[in-house]
């Protein structure tokens, strides 16, 4: 007994040292069976150079992606993108995209990449949730079958949640934490569809659903950084908060499942609506569970766990998208005229419908709203990879350029580099909200620009349409592309267009002088989490925009710009670098907003060495 206790300490120390050594070797030096003739982004030849590039990937993945894309993808060569947290990935040139999309799932699996990246076997609460595609099936079969059905509920919930979060005092500017308020708004309106009005207005359920979905990616990120051997020990601690909220979600879902279960029996045909008085996720999950023979799927536990995880997939990505879009509009030099143009479109397309009776044919006419969201997704898609798959055949695969990739290799294309490629999207770094709708609004556009030419590929009918938010292409992969493109995008597009149209009609957004930055967490790109915006409720949804409160933020640049330029010149003369966006300055940061404030305050500038 005593001798056992004496051995425990050294055994633990040995395990820690051993797992750390394996961790360092694997993360920094191992080639992981990848062909050594493939170049590594950001690295010359040699293990040390690769290790340095791998270290850079932790905070400089964006630069490595662009570096590899410019050096290799554009010359039609595959390259290896180092990634310290999740392992290196083989990035194919776009000419190999067709091959990538054609590979069957038993050869290259997209699901496997997500499974590993999200540590789905732990974060998704149950091995079956992580493994089976019930979500995709249920989303395609039930949620998407008649999207018009939810429009009035969604609009009702938008009104309610915006009033709660942004207020209804007409003409009064209110400062709002954008991400947090959109977290609440999107959680409410998605849950209105997923679980109905009673639960979506239950504060405890709503809070736990929001906290679970907000934290899941963070837990996955921390698990990615954890050495493999230590993960089983660390995960109960890292997952404690997620389980705490899951249990609160389950508390509300269990009784509903138990109450409805007696109406079901094995072999029921889910297409027969006789037994379907409800239209929500719990009912869809029960339909699915009773259409095949797996009793565990029918349990309240599995249905609650699936719902919690679905909320993550469905809600977080929509919050990120609308947050980015609103910041993009507010930070545009033409913020006010963009709002006017969107308002004009929304008002003119809604004149025949009351606010509560939107149908998809109305939404389809909102091509500027659609384009404004799509353009923001192009710039800030929440994940830098577009299509990424894992080799799941034991013998490996040979890519079209001839290199052999072993089992377990991640291979695909990155959307970030493609979405920011000047030769595909002229002025690619700028937010151009009508980039896509312009095609449909100006028939001569296609003849005038290369962008128009490219987008107008396809049949003559297709050529006349602007590419819609839901259309994934080789050059727009914010929903991924191919067979595994997001199955929820039709619902997401509906919900986001309704929300943006509603915001534009009922609120003014005050312009801001510079766009807050989007943080990168490995290959996930978050929205600005803590930045704020000012909004005010409008008296008449169709009246012209009111001038923003602060003269600094007015879009009358003829007044604004000379003052800011003058302040910049003083700072530059003093030997300080002042950039268009942000630049280091002493202990703080000087950006255009601060410069503008200095200019308008007329404050003397004191420069200390
Ligand atoms: C603007 C909002 C959304 C964006 C940007 C988005 C984006 C994506 C992307 C990029 C993927 C592929 C991930 C990968 O393979 O690397 C994906 C998958 C998925 N999305 Fe979405 N999504 C959105 C909304 C939704 C909604 C509303 C739902 C559900 C109602 C949903 C459900 C799913 C599911 C279940 C998958 C996994 C599909 C599979 O494994 O085949 N998403 N989404």
From TrEMBL:
It holds the Pfam family p450. The chain crosses the membrane at residues 6-25. Its cofactor is heme. Belongs to the cytochrome P450 family. Gene3D superfamilies: Cytochrome P450. GO terms for molecular function: heme binding; iron ion binding; monooxygenase activity; oxidoreductase activity, acting on paired donors, with incorporation or reduction of molecular oxygen. Heme binds at residue 486. Keywords: Heme, Iron, Membrane, Metal-binding, Monooxygenase, Oxidoreductase, Transmembrane, Transmembrane helix. This is Cytochrome P450. It comes from the Eukaryota.
């Amino acid at each position: 007994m005593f001798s056992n206790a004496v051995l425990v300490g050294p055994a633990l120390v040995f395990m820690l040292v051993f797992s750390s050594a394996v961790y360092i070797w694997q993360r920094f030096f191992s080639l992981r069976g990848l062909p050594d003739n493939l170049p590594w982004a950001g690295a010359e030849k040699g293990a040390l150079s690769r290790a340095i590039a791998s270290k850079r990937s932790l905070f400089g993945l964006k630069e490595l992606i662009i570096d590899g894309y410019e050096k290799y993808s554009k010359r039609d060569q595959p390259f290896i993108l180092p990634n310290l947290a999740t392992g290196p990935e083989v990035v194919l040139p776009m000419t190999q995209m067709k091959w990538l999309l054609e590979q069957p799932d038993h050869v290259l699996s997209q699901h496997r990449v997500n499974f590993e990246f999200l540590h789905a076997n732990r974060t998704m609460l149950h091995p079956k949730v992580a493994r089976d595609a019930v979500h995709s099936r249920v989303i395609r079969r039930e949620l998407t079958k008649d999207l018009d059905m939810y429009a009035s509920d969604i609009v009702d919930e938008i009104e309610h949640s915006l009033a709660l979060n942004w207020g209804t005092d007409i003409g009064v500017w209110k400062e709002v934490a954008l991400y947090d308020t959109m977290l609440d708004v999107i959680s409410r309106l998605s849950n209105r569809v997923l679980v109905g009005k009673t639960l979506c207005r239950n504060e405890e359920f709503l809070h736990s659903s929001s906290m679970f979905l907000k934290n899941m990616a963070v837990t996955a990120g921390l698990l990615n950084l954890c050495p493999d051997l230590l993960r089983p020990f660390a995960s109960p601690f890292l997952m404690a908060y997620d389980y705490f909220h899951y249990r609160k979600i389950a508390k509300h879902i269990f009784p509903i499942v138990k109450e409805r279960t007696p109406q079901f029996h094995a072999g029921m045909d889910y297409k027969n609506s006789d037994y379907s008085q409800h239209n929500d996720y719990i009912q869809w999950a029960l339909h699915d569970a009773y259409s095949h023979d797996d009793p565990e799927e029918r349990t309240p536990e599995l249905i609650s766990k699936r719902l919690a995880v679905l909320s993550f997939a469905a809600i977080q990505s929509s919050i990120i998208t609308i947050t980015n879009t609103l910041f993009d509009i507010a930070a545009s030099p033409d913020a006010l005229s963009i709002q006017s143009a969107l308002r004009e479109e929304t008002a003119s397309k809604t004149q025949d419908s009351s606010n509560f009776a939107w149908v998809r044919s109305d939404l389809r006419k909102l091509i500027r709203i659609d384009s404004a969201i799509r353009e923001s997704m192009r710039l800030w898609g929440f994940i830098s990879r577009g299509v990424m798959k894992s080799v799941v055949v034991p013998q490996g695969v040979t890519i079209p350029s001839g290199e052999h990739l072993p089992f377990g290799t991640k291979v695909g294309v990155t959307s970030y580099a493609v979405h920011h490629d000047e030769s595909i999207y002229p002025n690619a770094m700028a937010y151009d909200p009508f980039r896509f709708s312009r095609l449909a609004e100006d028939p001569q556009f296609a003849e005038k620009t290369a962008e128009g030419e490219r987008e107008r590929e396809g049949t003559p009918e297709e050529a006349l349409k602007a590419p819609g938010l839901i259309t994934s292409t080789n050059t727009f992969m914010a929903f991924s592309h191919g067979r595994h493109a997001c199955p929820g995008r039709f619902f997401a597009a509906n919900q986001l267009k309704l929300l943006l149209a509603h915001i534009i009609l009922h609120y003014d957004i005050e312009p801001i002088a510079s766009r807050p930055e989007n943080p990168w967490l490995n290959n996930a790109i978050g929205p600005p989490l803590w930045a704020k915006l000012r909004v005010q409720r409008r008296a008449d949804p169709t009246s012209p925009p009111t001038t923003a409160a602060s003269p600094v933020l007015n879009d009358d640049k003829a007044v604004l710009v000379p003052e800011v330029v003058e302040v910049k010149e003083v700072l530059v003369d003093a030997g300080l670098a002042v950039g268009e966006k942000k630049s280091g300055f002493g202990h703080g940061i000087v950006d255009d907003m601060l410069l503008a404030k200095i200019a308008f305050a007329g404050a003397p500038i004191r420069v200390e060495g």
